[in-house]
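Sat 14:20. Reprocessing the chain from the morning session after the first attempt stalled halfway. Input below, unchanged.
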Amino acid sequence: MNSVFEIFKIGIGPSSSHTMGPMKAAKCFFEHLKTLNDLESTDSHPALLVELFGSLASTGLGHGTDKAIILGLLGEDPETINVDTIDSLLKSVRIDPHITLGDQTSVSFMLPDAIRFRKGKLLPGHSNGMRFSLSEGEHTLSEKIYYSVGGGFIVEADAQGGIPQIQPIESDESQMSFPYAFTSAEELLSLCTKYNLTIARLCLENECSHHAAEKVNSHIQSIWEVMQKTIQRGCTTVGLLPGRLEVPRRAPMLFEQLNRRKLGDQLTALDWVNLWAIATNEENAAGGKIITAPTNGAAGIIPAVLSYYDRFHQPLEIGTLREFFLTATAIGSLYKRNASISGAEVGCQGEVGVACSMAAAGLAAIMGGSIQQVENAAEIGMEHNLGLTCDPIAGLVQIPCIERNAMGATKAISAARLALQGTGSHKVSLDKVIATMRRTGKDMKTKYKETSRGGLAVNAVDC
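Finished this time. Tokens:
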């Protein structure tokens, strides 16, 4: 299972798979190069080459993958980077085409040739593949392959270039043992029933077997605060989103309209949910600070659903936040283990669909649902996102991605309310819908999985 520290992470937009993952991979290779002892003895500066494959090659420019890799090679991390310094850091490499590894050592990194987009080519392990190599003439000094597998997670390839059967290399949490470990929703519900625990309480016991409760609470409080700040920035920042589509930000206008609206419209709450989701994903599209929930492309759904509860039910406190986020973590962990949260692997059902399922479960839990109703809410949330394709126009996380988060948030609220009106008994289990999602993603044509070669990406070219 995964920890709340893994599923919900601070990062930058616009994509967890195409921005955060590549930045982490580049930083890993940067740290690896610093350990090589023979670089100082070379006669000239060795040359660094980065090759992008599969989905990264197809939509990497639109997602800022090249920029993310440069930042990672400069030693920057998506969680700690100051977004206000990004432009100056990128400019510094274009002025002086070298990457400094230490006081006396540097390698050549001559743009644009140092980053190559191998369109139409795949590495064997995953559709989001990257190869980093350092060479001196014809001699390769070091080479590594990494895969960005969704949600900002990366793995290093095995000797054959495939994905080894291990957890992501940047994660210590996934390799921990937990007192209430589970690999399926059936096991999760069985443990909850056996020990008379809610899903959130079971997950808290697991978290507290490795972290102090105060640390868990602090992380949950911090991710909620970042989500709120992201919404605030999205509601107040005007202008065009980056990229050739020149999409205008809509959240400030929607925010102003809602604040002027007179009371009485029974669907006003729905309009606020749409606003909060759009505000978040416009900030993501602009490369701002974001919380993976569980990915950047689907980052607006959970903040919008939580904001809905906070405004239209009762103010959120740490106990309620903990109940929501730990329940959502349990659900997200099941998708990550038994299917995928990568749009490049299974389409947008793995991003917006998973976020919708997680949000529905979390909302059902904090509204007093039983463990069976919570599981039912999660199942409904995914069942009606099955087959959702990932087809961003121009490779930008803008159209249809921003509006898709608004729709995902409203679906999550409907799923939770439907589940709470039932007994928890239902025909299709969460495990079955996760298995269906995985098989659907496997059957889905590659052009509908974050390549911008199908769907809206080719049928709306006038955008």
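Strands lie at 9-12, 47-53, 98-100, 106-108, 115-118, 128-136, 139-150, 153-156, 289-292.
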